[in-house]
Amino acid sequence: MVNEDAANGWLDATFRAVAYTGPSDVYAALFDDHPDSGGAEISGDGYARVAITFDPASGGEIESGPAVEFPAAQDDWGEVKYIALYDSQTGGDRIVPAQATPTVDVLAGMVYRIKQGGYVVTVP
Fold first, then answer.
1. How far apart, in whole angstroms, are the C-alpha atoms of residue 50 and residue 112?
2. Would you say residue 121 has pLDDT above 80?
3. Is residue 52 exposed (0-12), middle (13-18) or buried (19+ Cβ within 10 Å)?
4. Distance between CA atoms of residues 81 and 54, nearest Å
5. What residues contact 81, with CB distance under 8 A and at least 6 apart?
6. DSSP type of residue 60
7. Mean pLDDT of the chain
8. Looking at the predicted structure, is the pLDDT value of residue 2 above 90?
9. Which residues pair with 63 in a beta bridge?
10. Cβ neighbours of residue 73 under 8 Å, at least 6 residues apart?
11. Averaged over 90-101, what is the pLDDT?
12. For residue 17, what are the CA distances in angstroms to 28, 87, 95?
C-alpha cells in the first residue's frame, strides 16, 4: 500500500490543483517479509538503505533508474522478500513496499542489487 500522505498529496495535486512536493530523496530498504505484516527491515552486518532514483513516469508507471547496490553483507542477512521505499536514509516515512522478485537469501560477502528498471510503481 502507498503511504497515505503521498497518496493524498498526489490526489489533491491531480484533482484539486493543490501543490504537492514529494521527497527530495528516496531510499530503498530491504525487508524479510511485508512491512505491513510484521516484516522487519534488515539491520546490522553492514546493512544500510541506499538512495534510488527513477526515470520519468510513462503509461501510469515509474521505473527505477540506474542500478543500485547495497553494501556487502558482513554476515548473513537472511532472505530478502520485500523492498520498501522511504523518504529518509534512516527512520522517515515509508512511501511504498513491493515484493522482491526473486527473493534472495543474502549471505556474508554478497552484494544485493536492484537492477535498472527493477523497481516499478504502477498507478492503477
1. 11
2. yes
3. buried
4. 21
5. 31, 32, 33, 34, 39, 99, 100, 103
6. T
7. 93
8. no
9. 120
10. 45, 46, 47, 106, 107, 108, 109, 110, 111, 112
11. 93
12. 29, 23, 22
According to DSSP, the residues that pair with 83 across neighbouring strands are 30, 98
Residue 122 forms beta bridges with which residues? 61
Q: How far apart are CA 18 and CA 8, in angstroms?
A: 10
Q: What is the mean pLDDT of residues 33-40?
A: 95
- Nearest by Cα to 54 from 41, 37, 67: 67
All structural domains of the chain with their residue ranges? 24-122
* Rounded distance between C-alpha atoms, residue 63 and residue 4, angstroms: 21
> Per residue in 84-95, pLDDT tens?
999 999 999 999
**How many CB atoms lie under 10 A from the CB of residue 67?**
12
Residue 46 grid cell:
553492514
Whole-number pLDDT of residue 22: 86
